[in-house]
UniProtKB/TrEMBL annotation:
The keyword RNA-binding applies. Residues 162-507 form the SAM-dependent MTase RsmB/NOP-type domain. PROSITE patterns: SAM_MT_RSMB_NOP. The lineage of its organism: Bacteria, Bacillati, Actinomycetota, Actinomycetes, Streptosporangiales. This is 16S rRNA (Cytosine967-C5)-methyltransferase. It comes from Nonomuraea soli. Keywords: Methyltransferase, RNA-binding, S-adenosyl-L-methionine, Transferase.
Length: 510
């Protein structure tokens, strides 16, 4: 019997294994080529993505059921079967039967017999019964325990633990990392707005005045997205750009630089804010903040809207759903809006990327920006002329693992020293590009301390002319951003990628 969904899932697993394919690029292509839609497409996607996310747990369980290492093509089939048995509601006889049929067809009769025997052993226990058997005990080895039970590489769990500084919340973070993120859109100011995205079926975002969540459907079909007036962009990515624009500056404010702009998410928003300003967005935020405050006061509530800088305000999870219109769940901010100033518009953005094809993507998505291919460490621009600089540095991407199912297994701890060296060089160059009095955002989509706080504190030592601002003060609508002065977003707290932001001002001190 043809089983198109399982075949497509198996092909994706093999391609990821054999040629480092990206599952989220390959799967839509296979579905299109093979004419799979509706339930078949959903099943194939869940089978492939779920298996890839969970294989840190599944491989341990498979290892406990075999007496020799399976060949790679057999291992992928076992992983696929294990995912159906342990995490999907596929009845055991169907999970085993369909996987064995697939192996008979794709590999051979001998392998099918082997897979049948192993899957029957796996089926004898639930995931909750297996994990205590195959994972180290929590008390003896917390990192090893969490790595197996939540299917993350151990070094990633260690990096999250260091950055989070709260072992009790670590399982929650890892779980949030295992959930598929909602599709978030940005309505670029002056070009679109959330109301237009709502007409296309989106719901207003939680924090950013420009954000909307798309519950279903292809974002590419939304007219504003197709015309680059809106785009797909995580809410934390929007907020770090917004925070940079909100810092009050003395003197001129006409020239902005995005040093590592490709593929252009932040540049697209900065380009629009530079041209049109963010007054409308800030006004809306203030109004909602005040309304929330009034509502909370009349409800007699002391948490949530007025001072709820705690997890409680957000029900602890992204999957909890967004339960209302604009303003719901917002307003957990740490301060008021005193520090925040709307940018009035009238500035120009220069957007650079070292890779030509990525600079081209920036050019496509921006409208007014001057886009160049340039190495930020050997810049072609004049020094000391930019009023605001965004440095969204190349990094391990540990904060965005939930976006790509296989990403966590591809990252390598050994890349960290090389990346931090580049981050330091780019940061030095960003400081040189800034005029005295100008402000710089250092951003990573990684919470790894070596890439975040350490890079920033070392830069402060090398550059006595820098002063660090409290980034949280420029995001008053977001609560729970950490101890400061930087802001750290988290998937389990904010429903966003684990984005890091430090704001640095260049003073005239030497
Ligand atoms: C984290 S991504 C930037 C994401 C982008 N800001 C956005 O929001 O879409 C880092 C970018 O830095 C670029 N890059 C790496 N080394 C660079 C260098 N020396 N100079 C300029 N860009 C560099 C990479 O090509 C990559 O596009």
């Amino acid at each position: 019997m043809r089983d198109d969904a399982r075949n497509a899932a198996y092909d994706v697993l093999r391609a990821v294994d054999e040629r480092d394919a990206y599952a989220n690029l390959l799967m839509p292509r296979l579905l299109r080529e093979r004419g799979l839609g509706g339930r078949d497409a959903a099943l194939a996607t869940e089978l492939a993505y779920g298996t890839l996310r969970g294989l840190g747990s599944y491989d341990k369980i498979i290892a406990a059921c075999v007496d020799r290492d399976p060949d790679p093509e057999v291992l992928d089939a076992l992983r696929l079967g294990a995912h159906q048995l342990l995490r999907m509601r596929v009845p055991p006889h169907a999970a085993v039967g369909t996987t064995v049929d697939l192996v008979r067809l794709r590999i051979g009769q001998g392998a099918a017999k082997f897979v049948n025997a192993v899957l029957r052993k796996i089926a004898a226990r639930t995931i909750d019964e297996w994990l205590p058997i195959v994972a180290p005990a929590k008390e003896a080895d917390l990192l090893g325990h969490l790595a197996v039970t939540h299917s993350h590489p151990r070094w990633v769990v260690a990096a999250f633990r260091d950055a989070l500084g709260d072992d009790a919340r670590l399982p929650e973070l890892l779980e949030a990392d295992n959930a598929r993120p909602a599709v978030t859109l940005v309505a670029r100011p002056g070009r679109s707005d959330v109301a237009e995205l709502e007409e296309s079926g989106a719901e207003p975002g939680r924090y950013s005045p420009y954000a909307a969540y798309l519950p279903e459907g292809d974002p590419g079909r939304i007219p504003a997205v197709a015309a680059y007036r809106a785009a797909v962009q995580d809410e934390a990515s929007q907020l770090v750009a917004l925070a940079l624009a909100r810092v009050p500056l003395e003197g001129p404010d006409r020239l902005w630089l995005d040093m590592c702009a490709g593929p252009g998410g932040k540049a697209g928003l900065l380009d629009a804010i530079a041209a049109y300003g963010d007054e409308a967005g800030l006004e809306r935020e203030k109004r909602e903040h005040e309304e929330n405050g009034r509502r909370a006061a009349s409800d007699g509530a002391s948490d949530g809207a007025s001072d709820g800088a705690s997890d409680g305000g957000f029900d602890g999870g992204f999957d909890g759903g967004f339960d209302g219109g604009p303003g719901s769940g917002r307003g957990g901010g740490s301060g008021g809006f005193e520090a925040v100033q709307a940018f009035p518009g009238g500035a120009h953005l220069v957007a650079a990327d070292a890779q030509h094809h990525r600079a081209r993507l920036v050019w496509e998505t921006t409208r007014e920006a001057a886009v160049i291919t340039a190495d930020g460490t050997e810049p072609p621009w004049r020094q000391g002329v930019f009023d605001r600089v965004m440095l969204d540095a190349p990094c391990t991407g540990l904060g965005a693992l939930r976006r790509r199912p296989e990403a966590r297994w591809r990252r390598d701890a050994r890349s960290v020293p090389e990346l931090t060296k580049l981050q330091r060089a780019l940061l030095d160059s960003a400081v040189a590009a800034l005029r005295p009095g100008g402000v710089l955002a250092y951003v990573t989509c990684s919470p790894h301390l070596a890439e975040t706080q350490v890079v920033v504190s070392d830069a402060l030592k090398r550059h006595p002319e820098l002063e660090q601002l409290d980034a949280r003060a420029y995001l008053p609508e977001v609560g729970d951003l950490g101890q400061g002065p930087h802001a750290q977003f988290w998937p389990h707290r904010h429903g966003t990628d684990a984005m890091f932001l430090a704001l640095l001002r260049k003073t005239s001190k030497r």
